[in-house]
């Protein structure tokens, strides 16, 4: 088994934190997505979309998409549960994970990819106006999650889950396009300090 | 239990097809998202993001996000399996479902929401250039899925899954911004004819 990983990229970090929370170690290979490394024939066979992360199983099966890789490990190593323990919890974790993806992760990625000069070859065309349109969407989502976190420790309730991992990676990624948590968002700041203090956040 | 649904909208259709494949009937209430109906206090309490579909359980628990609702039913009614039966299948279905979402569903939604006059109040600001940028992304994804479907009956392999439901709803939604499957995409057209012929596609 091998995990194709890119240090510093936000999506592979989701998988690294997930594995750290599970206490699972997987051999990794670094893929430099900014060079042409993701475009080699060998990597394109693993993931035709040429993106990281990718998990290659011993029989050659390749699984891409961060959450798909996490789901594989959740099924193989259920403890500690990070995607819910029963139907209602699983549905709620899925809901919060998607709200973090659509509300924060995607708008942050758009704000970055459609404005940063380093992305001009990967994101064609770069639409500046779309980058700008996403900045207030991120801030609106920060406000929403600040309210949500006023009555619970973690996004999906009292249990740390993949939804917290997604939001953590998205909030940290937001520093790149210079979108920080506003000072008056006390609940979101409390949550961010707590999840950042977990050992897994270093992964 | 009640499903808040909007006839004609592509996301609620994903849930309706999923339920039809499972043979589950759930009482529904129609929400007119184009009027202010999704903005009422009662509906906002169910889903602060004011979007459909929402599943309300008998104890008042509200689950939004189409795939989260599907996951609830998959756990409660595992047969027929639509999200995979074991770790590898579950990961692969998740991967293909996300590829259909990110590759087709999202670009189609952007092409529609950022250009259609009817969406000018729901999508602020409308970024015309972003709508245009997504049209070739949809066509590129059609090409990708046409190749994928050259060696298998369904997206995730030999078993119909939620990934097929997502792609079907996305391809049909693409008619609104006038993006059809090109004539020479024989595999994608064969797949589309097959999944459209299932009884569930009428849901």
From TrEMBL, chains A, B:
Cited InterPro entries: Glutathione-S-Trfase_C-like, Glutathione-S-Trfase_C_sf, Glutathione_S-Trfase, Glutathione_S-Trfase_N, GST_C, Gtt2-like_C, Gtt2-like_N, Thioredoxin-like_sf
One Pfam family in the UniProt entry: GST_C
Entry annotated with the keyword Transferase: yes
Keyword Transferase on entry: yes
Keywords, alphabetical: Transferase
Taxonomy, superkingdom: Bacteria
Family matches, as PROSITE patterns: GST_CTER, GST_NTER
Record domain GST C-terminal: where: 86-203
Any one Gene Ontology molecular-function term assigned to this protein's record: transferase activity
CDD domains the UniProt entry points to: GST_C_GTT2_like, GST_N_GTT2_like
Domain GST N-terminal positions: 1-81
Protein name, per record: Glutathione S-transferase
Protein's organism: Stappia sediminis
């Amino acid at each position: 088994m091998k995990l194709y990983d890119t240090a510093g990229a936000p999506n592979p970090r989701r998988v690294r934190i997930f594995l750290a929370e599970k206490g699972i170690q997987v051999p990794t290979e670094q893929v430099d997505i900014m060079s042409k490394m993701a475009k080699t024939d060998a990597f394109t066979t693993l993931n035709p979309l040429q993106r990281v992360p990718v998990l290659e199983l011993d029989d050659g099966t390749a699984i891409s998409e961060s959450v798909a890789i996490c789901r594989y490990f959740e099924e193989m190593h259920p403890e500690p549960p990070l995607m819910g323990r029963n139907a209602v919890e699983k549905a709620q974790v899925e809901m919060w994970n998607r709200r973090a993806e659509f509300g924060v992760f995607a708008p942050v990625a758009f704000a970055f990819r459609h404005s940063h000069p380093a992305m001009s070859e990967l994101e064609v065309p770069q639409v500046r106006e779309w980058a700008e349109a996403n900045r207030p969407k991120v801030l609106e989502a920060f406000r929403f999650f600040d309210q949500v976190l006023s009555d619970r420790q973690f996004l999906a309730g009292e249990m740390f889950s993949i939804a917290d991992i997604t939001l953590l990676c998205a909030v940290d990624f937001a520093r790149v396009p210079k979108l920080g948590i506003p000072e008056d968002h006390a609940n979101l700041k409390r949550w961010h300090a707590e999840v950042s203090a977990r050992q897994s956040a270093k992964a």
